[in-house]
Amino acid sequence: MVGVYPIARLGTSLLLLLAVFASRSLASVAFLYAVVLVGVIICGISAAHFRFVTWVTLPFLFSLLVLYGLLIRAAPGGWASSGEHYAIYLWLRVAACGAIVQALLVPLMRRPACLKAFLEALGTGPTLGTLVLASVVILPDIRRTLERVQDARRSQGFRTDGLAGLWGLPSLLLPTISSLLVSANKRAELWSHRGILLRNRGLPQFRYKRLQSLAVILVALASCAGTFATWIFTF
Amino acid sequence: MKIGTRSMAVMASLVALNVAIGGLVHVLKIPIFLDAIGTILAVLLLGRNPGIVVGVLSFLAAAAFVNPVYVWFVGTQAVIAIFIFIAADRFSAFKTPIRAIVAGLGLGLAAGVASAPVIVAVFGGVSGSGRDLITVALVAAGRQVYRAVILSGAASEPVDKILQTLAAYYVLKSLPKSLLARFRNPVLEKNGLV
Q: Fewer CB within 10 Å: C terminus or N terminus of chain A?
């Protein structure tokens, strides 16, 4: 899916998000979610999406069922038959939006060259692309530093999770941020000395696939048309 | 926006810090977010606009790496950067720990109010965190969902934000002044950090 033209990729994602928010029935939001799920599977990010649904959206569902199913016992505006119905609709909406955002961002973040090409094609200029890429490249380094500090605290016998972890935050943050700023300065010296950030010319041109882009646009348009048709019939 | 090499390296590191700490807090189940500490440091070290860029980019990256829900709160990050800039530039909010606590309190209220419309419009009033307990209790007491979300944000966000402003204050205080002086940001001087 990274072969889809950036404008088409962003456009279809925004269109699908609009359709998800415009849908006013459980069936239409479930249909849109099913369409996006196919995209998620094609993108190869089904494991990431499964983790999102399990660890993030299920607590949402629980809170929504308590709020609308037990306390309010109705949907705002009265367009859903019951509070539980509305809670499940909202949960599906959160899951569908999450799937759209993941299908847009995760494959790009996994292939940094595509990310830079994507940002430049959207007209953001090379600086922003380099900044985003640099943060993606630095992220594992920062994670390692955080883990090292955590390991040091654990080996001293401290607990690092839950409320005990909260009290240990200063000892986690101080060395991490100090080391981050020092290494950022060293990195900046290296980058400016070697002129690394100015060398954009040697980058390979990314090739987009017309047929794949067309297929994604058509599927998104068809799903949105279906959703808007049900929306018009509902009113 | 033209960005120098040092600013670029620091901004990239702070974006990565926001994402890494957000992920760590999520994994360790620590009952706070700590997702704006990079944004606060970016404002204090580099200025308002780099702070906004760091906040927005870190939430877009966190949406890809940690949790797609983050994408809806990029506006809150921009509000955080602007609030910290005004607090540090006009009121020298990072001169003493007490001032940092007051700035954290104000930041919590601002972030709570800024994120409330998103929580109501996108998530129906819940956030999937401990904050929902307060929202549910307020709704049970007869409050409307929107008001309950604003009040629960105002009750829970300040604790998180006070911790972050205090952490930023102590980190900057403990760093060598020669290192901070390289950033040449007037905000650092106004707060007595260089």
A: C
- What is the rounded CA–CA span in Å between residue B1 and residue B20? 26
Over residues A27-49, the pLDDT tens digits come to: 889 989 999 999 899 888 999 99
**Surface of A (141-200) touching B: CB under 8 A:** 141-143, 146, 150, 160-163, 165-166, 169-170, 173-174, 176-178, 180-185, 187-188, 191-192, 197
Question: Which among B65, B126, B170 is the nearest to A109, CB-wise?
Answer: B65
Task: Name every chain B residue with its beta carbon within 8 A of the beta carbon of A48.
Answer: none
Q: Is the ipTM of this complex over 0.90?
A: no
Structural domains present in chain B:
5-190 (1.10.1760)
